[in-house]
Amino acid sequence: MIALKRGSVMEMNDRVAIVTGAASGIGRATARMLSSAGAHAVVLVDTDEAGLTETAEVINAEVLLVTCDVTSQTDLESLYAEVAGKFGRLDVVFNNAGIVSGPPPFPDTDLARMKLVVDIDLTSVIQSSALAIQYMRENGGGVIVNTASTGGLNPYLSDAPYAAAKAGVIMFSRSCAELHKQCGIRVNAVCPGVTETPILEKTGGGTRPDWLGPIMENIKVLTPEDIGQAVLDIIADDNIAGEFIVVQNEAR
Ligand SMILES: NC(=O)c1ccc[n+]([C@@H]2O[C@H](COP(=O)([O-])OP(=O)(O)OC[C@H]3O[C@@H](n4cnc5c(N)ncnc54)[C@H](O)[C@@H]3O)[C@@H](O)[C@H]2O)c1
């Protein structure tokens, strides 16, 4: 884990960025901030078409909306082919789509739901990164940021599958460190603490769960923009590769 220079100015001019989970929360905020930083184009990726359209309204750059289920290899391959064909370049990928298990807590979680958590939160990050790396390696490098979580650093019984998937994202990103020297591709993970987004409601199956109340009383909840700024800082810093950057909740 390393500290970041906060508030660095990113050179995003002419850059093309893909953001998954862009219909909501951290993805929406980061997509907007990438466009404000000067990106030429932001590719908004999600399964939620209505949410993607809302996000597009706050983007100050060329926008491409792609309805894509990140667990689908076919959808991902089409996404990367479409971006390469339309823009002829790809500089930044933010693999951010994610879900939590929701009730009932582990070990009583539905098996299909546990599998989906691992598919979306870990396997899709690996698949999307592989496609991005194959493209970037032939085209002068790039930056990939994968959303993990502080939940991937600390034991978390009630959603152990989520914690395991996010720990996997951290180790996957660290394992890609050498790509920086090999082919100019920097892969890093960002680990948000508790952040005010719709996912918090989903942890209780549509309502904020009781157990979250006491936790949130004692901490300053982060904003999606706090995480977006960390992502921009990671992108801006040419020396960061194979790291996981924690955006911690401060105590109240
Ligand atoms: N909010 C927090 O407290 C917090 C803390 C740590 C990590 N995170 C992580 O941040 C990331 C973003 O979450 P958020 O808090 O903004 O939640 P969110 O629910 O607001 O956004 C997640 C987005 O991912 C999309 N998505 C889910 N499954 C998908 C799929 N199969 N294909 C494409 N898109 C899909 C959803 O439609 C949604 O728009 C997630 O990976 C989450 O685990 C969030």
What would you say about this model in short?
This protein has 9 helices and 7 strands. With 252 residues, the protein is an alpha/beta fold.
Number of separate structural domains: 1
Mean pLDDT: 94
Strand content bin? 15-25%
Low-confidence stretches: 6-10
CATH topology grouping: Rossmann fold
- Assign the CATH class: Alpha Beta
Shape: globular
What is the β-strand count? Answer: 7
Give the CATH architecture.
3-Layer(aba) Sandwich
Which ions, cofactors or small ligands are bound in this entry? nicotinamide-adenine-dinucleotide
- Structural class designation: alpha/beta
Report Rg: 17 Å
Indicate the percent of residues in helices.
40-55%
CATH superfamily: NAD(P)-binding Rossmann-like Domain
> What is the N-to-C order of secondary-structure elements (H for helix, E for strand)?
EHEHEHEHEHHEHHHE
How many helices in DSSP terms? Answer: 9
Distance between the termini: 23 Å
Largest sheet: 7 strands, parallel
Give the strand order, joined by hyphens, for the main sheet: 3-2-1-4-5-6-7
